[in-house]
Amino acid sequence: MGRPRKQIDQVDFESLLGLQCTLSEIVAFFDNKLGGCSEDTIERWCKRTYHASFAEVSAKKRDMGKISIRRMQLQLAEKNPSMAIWLGKQYLGQREHVAVEANLQVEDDPITKALKESGIIDNGLK
Known about the structure:
By secondary structure, the protein is mostly helical.
């Protein structure tokens, strides 16, 4: 007979995933709370509870955290123009169009001057 299974709280687990915690961070949380926990323990618990690996569960449950982040960003954008601009660029494809005008005068270029003085070029190659 093996030792008793660790009692991982599903609400805590899903809250940690919502906060975008990694497997090692979740292990540290439950290790502290339960007095011992490993990555294998979390993997086995996920298989029993969700019938899926930690990676699969994590991918699904972390999306709830992303929704919370998005909600906070949108609320912040109401008061912060920089956040509104950033969100527009990220999600709406908005861009700043900067006109760049170059006025190059080859004659003023130090390399061109040196080549002319040495006789290597004179309005083109010799």
